[in-house]
Amino acid sequence: MEDYDGPDEVVRRRRPDIPVTCFRPAALESAAKWFLNNFPGKVLYAVKANPAKYVLSGLYAAGIRHYDAASIPEIQLVHELCPGAHIAFMHPVKSRPSIEQAYFDHAVRDFSFDSVEELDKIIACTGKSKDLGLYLRLAVPNTSSELPLSGKFGCLPEKAPEILKMARKASKKLGICFHVGSQTMDPQAYVTALNLVAGILRSIPRTRIDVIDIGGGFPSIYPDMAPPALADYKTAIESGFDLLPHPDRYEFWCEPGRALVAESASVVVQVELRKDDVLYINDGTYGSLFDAGHLGFRYPVRLIRPTPGGTSAPHKAFKFYGPTCDSIDYMPGPFFLPEDVREGDYIEIGQLGAYGNTMRTDFNGFSAHEVVSVKAPPLVTLYDDTQETTDSKELCVA
């Protein structure tokens, strides 16, 4: 991976005709250090957010030693790149062969489930082993998240006590886990969920629970989604822990994904055509910009001219089309850029370290891209004392 001072240098030295991911090792390290220094328990990276080898290696180098995997390929990647790492198989519904492979071939001992049927499957596929860590996924409110996840997985709280009693008989370590939803904008969501957990624990005082896993949901920052400071999440979560009966009895886990890696990468794209307020660019929803199209995310953007010299033009709202022939390869934005943007200009799109290249496909033959390393800071960040909340209109500088 080549090193550059920043995306501007990449553009002016290379004039790239394919999308370029600008990886920021320092931003990745900052995010990892924040969680390691502020969360009172194990920090499990949710590999699905970005399984790139340079990301996994960077997190490991920054001190992350625990990983939340959802598939055998993710487990294999972590084993390859992160020696001695602890891997938890936290997908609540798994195939029988994947359970067997995880347990017997990869020494995975921790498994989540959200039903009696899945519990029975795990027990059977591991040969009724006595060294299992079993974690019941609880359904909790996702009302504060931009991407609710409660519809697909989760055991209803009223069913949890009996299932936990059953799992206790088959486990060496027993836990309760939950997910408040991706990009959760209200820290109190964790308090609400932990209050539900507290009620369950009080209803089964004789059933030992070893682990409380608060999952993911930690947010990143976008032009129209500026969350509270991460310190507010820390305060809320600690107050939620205090609601639990005998909170000193439990080991606490969390599973950040987006918040750990979003700031660690941006993508530089080229404008191939302009039609009024629509820009045709060489990356799109089948590439690294899935969330910009299908979920309507507005990413921070800035203009980079291929030759030195900026623009003093006022900003206006633009929409993007990607390079494929599919009309749903469309990103409505609005993305604010100087009104004189033209064919041949480049645009840096930030906050794409999470669910960016991870979502890239080969559709229509537009899969070509490259990755470089840059020293420049991210366009916006949550990991400093000032907590940048700049609107994208102010980010679009030449």
Describe what this molecule looks like in 3D.
- With 398 residues, this protein is of the alpha/beta class.
- It folds into two domains: 3-22 and 262-395, Lyase, Ornithine Decarboxylase, Chain A, domain 1 (Beta Barrel); 25-261, Alpha-Beta Barrel (TIM Barrel).
- 29% of the residues lie in helices and 23% in strands.
- The strands form three sheets. Strands 1, 2, 13, 14, 15, 16, 17, 18 and 19 form a nine-stranded mixed β-sheet that branches. Strands 3-4-5-6-7-9-11-12 form an eight-stranded parallel β-barrel.
- Strand 11 (211-213), helix 9 and strand 12 form a beta-alpha-beta unit.
- The longest helix has 16 residues, at 188-203.
- It is elongated.
What is the total number of structural domains? Answer: 2
* Total strands: 19
Question: Segments where pLDDT lies below 50 for 5+ residues?
Answer: 385-398
Which fold does the CATH topology of the largest domain refer to? Answer: TIM Barrel
Quick tags:
TIM Barrel; 2 domains; Lyase, Ornithine Decarboxylase, Chain A, domain 1; alpha/beta; 398 residues; single chain; 12 helices
Task: Summarize the entry for a quick read.
With about 400 residues, the protein is of the alpha/beta class. It has helices at about 5-15, 25-40, 55-60, 70-80, 95-105, 115-125, 160-170, 190-205, 230-240, 260, 290-295, 390-395; strands at about 5, 20-25, 40-45, 65-70, 85-90, 110-115, 135-140, 145, 175-180, 180-185, 210-215, 250-255, 265-275, 280, 300-305, 315-320, 330-340, 345-350, 370-375. Strands 1, 2, 13, 14, 15, 16, 17, 18 and 19 form a 9-stranded mixed beta sheet that branches. The protein has an 8-stranded parallel barrel with strand order 3-4-5-6-7-9-11-12. The chain has a two-stranded antiparallel sheet with strand order 8-10.
